[in-house]
Amino acid sequence: MKKGVLERLESSDEGTFGILRYYDGEYLHYFYAGELPWRDNAPNVSCIPKGVYTVMWTRSPRFKRCMYLVAKVAKRSGIRAHAANFMGDDTKGFRKQLHGCIALGEKLGWLGGQKAILVSRPAMRRF
User: What positions does the domain DUF5675 occupy (predicted)?
Assistant: First the structure.
């Protein structure tokens, strides 16, 4: 079982960004993480509350493949970890590819003038 810590470093209308670290028993791994901005845990527009969660490898009915599921998030369901670049508040003109899920990447940077998670698909394969 993987045990990790997601440390949130900053949050703005462009998204919530942090670092996920986990130890697999031999090596320490890290990824950049991106989530939606905090919007009082509102479904589809907010990151999840700070807390301790169990993450399980399960089949997603929406994505029709196995993915990591963040289980037992209060007042939320279907919170997954998957590849994405943008996690901004779309009501304020920012792009988003998340609806409450968490994106992982190998880099943090800018795409088209917006803060973004980069090299996301390779990071998800490594995770």
Answer: 6-127
